[in-house]
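In this notebook, the sequence line spells out the residues, with the fold written below as integer tokens. This is how one looks.
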Amino acid sequence: MQFLGAPARLQQTHQAVMQRYHFWSALLMLCVLSSIPHATAQSANDTTRWTPDLSMQYHAIAGAAMAPDGQLVAYVVREPLMEGEQSEYQSQIYLASADGAMNVQYTRGEHSSYSPAFSPEGQHLAFITTRSGAPQVWAMRVQGGEAYQVTDAETGVGRFQWAPDGSKIAYTMTDPKSDEEKQREKERRDVQVVDEEHLYSHLYTTDVAEASDSTRQVQRLTGGDFHIRSFDWSPDGSTLVFDHQPTPNINSGFTQADISTVPADSGAVTALVEQPGVDSDPHFSPDGSQIAFTGQGGQAEPVGLNDVYVIAASGGTPQKLAETPNRSSSLHGWRANDTVLISEPVRTSSHLFAVPTSGASPRQLTEGDGLHGTIALNADASQMAYTYENTDTPENLYVTGLDAYERNQLTTLHEDVPMPPMGRTEVLTWTAPDGTEVEGLITYPVGYEDDTRVPLILSVHGGPAGVYNRSFTGGPSIYMTQVFAQEGYAVLRPNPRGSTGYGKEFRYANVEDWGNGDYEDLMAGVDLMVERDVAHPDSLALMGWSYGGYMTSYAVTKTDRFKAASMGAGLPNLISMVGTTDIPDYLVGHMGGEFWDNFETYERHSAIYRIDNVTTPTQVLHGAEDDRVPPSQGREFYRALKRLDVPTEMVLYPRTPHGPREPKLLMDVTPRILDWFDTHLGRAAGSE
């Protein structure tokens, strides 16, 4: 379930990405992973077919930074390490010239390096690395040389930013445990009082110039019972603006976040934006007179809303700018003093927009069908580095000027990776029974011939405010689309009501209606595939993770059309879910209130109360350490199916939160689902 939170900052660190969700340990491991199923084991070295092994060779660009003059781009490549006992990801930084003449690896070694940031004069590159233990900021000259450690944060650095004059950096660090807490832990007296003992993230500054620990100046700027999320320096270096939520718990960030300032040489924290709802991601204008931020307009919107506002740096009343198409802006900064730059989903693509402070309509700056991401700007926002991909094209890094969009490619990240023939992907539109227009993507089997009926997988995304978009279909993911296509399946990926990318009204259209209108949207897409002689009506399968898992559980209580289903991290019992998830306010927002005020609503939309209708063989997959959708949700459904003698199996992934974080475990999911579907659709394993 891709529950939406605050938008990521341009310089969001690898650590912040990996810790976006907070998880707790499961109490009991019910299943141990068996050997990897046939689709991986039989074809590990086959480069003529799509396999999980091949998909894992398509690596991700996990961050970028552009030099102030736009001449250089630093970017992060994240790749899996899976030799022997290894099952982890490693990130390293590369450096490319904007004209494409130079592209070299900048950091090396067994430890990850990420979050690159050029100094204001462009001569140094700082980055976060784990080479000395906890994540710390290191720096070195852009032209090479010996890197040196800048921070020695006890619990590690969360994110950082250069001061405008390049003499310091500001960074966030989570409070360390007190001596008393450490002693209690050592003596095994470390009981926890839930929601009353917090470790907050706060702001610090330190000198950047190479120095010994005894001469480096470190200054703490903030303290108290609030948790800092993101921050920005004023252009003159005198002030830092930051957004903060009441506690570190992810749930509090769905309902409340405020914006404050603090002098860069220490002093009192001053509230700038303090109102109900989430106001976040502040950025100073180039002249320092204004601050742009995203907000909810003084009302908590846990379902998800990010409009763009500006406020005078000295305070006052925020001014709402013109609404963007999806009203889910991720803010990247300013261009001059009259334009704010944001990105957001647009149907199945994503684009960069210029939002004038005059109140004029936003202007789309990027073009084409596909995903524009990892935005990095030069000092005056006249140039941009970005990643681009579409369904048939893997991700690479590009540059463009902001006045005229271009797609000048800097990297050939996958030129040596085999690309077998792909199952083609098309974007479709259909109409639900109530007249709602729905969009989705269909990926046909590899080598598909028109008017041939084939097995169809209905794949439901998470969220519910997730979206299936034009990302590369051959890359690694929980559901590896081209691997299913290679095995003879068509894969339908709809964006039912509740999805992002189609505006606020569509995103809110399934509030208090989970399992009804959205279900009809999905089934109308299946019907279209049957009517077009693509899907064989007797060979339908269903899968989904998180909210997609919810829809899987609910659908099998309403229809027996699917011959097999796979519920990943599903939530079949919304009452027990709201009492155990780490983001109850998100679910309560969708249900229209607390469950004790409306049991009927929660029960009506919970599959567990209709479980005796299920006849579909349903597989249950779950992370053993999932705090977003606790594994008890999967157990409830699995055990009820067992008692009903409905074919089922439950697989728990060890050390796994809300989706696999280890590459070997990620590679297990698609082959395991394929085995389940092949078995219950009566197909020979691996047949086409």
In short: The longest strand covers residues 535-545.
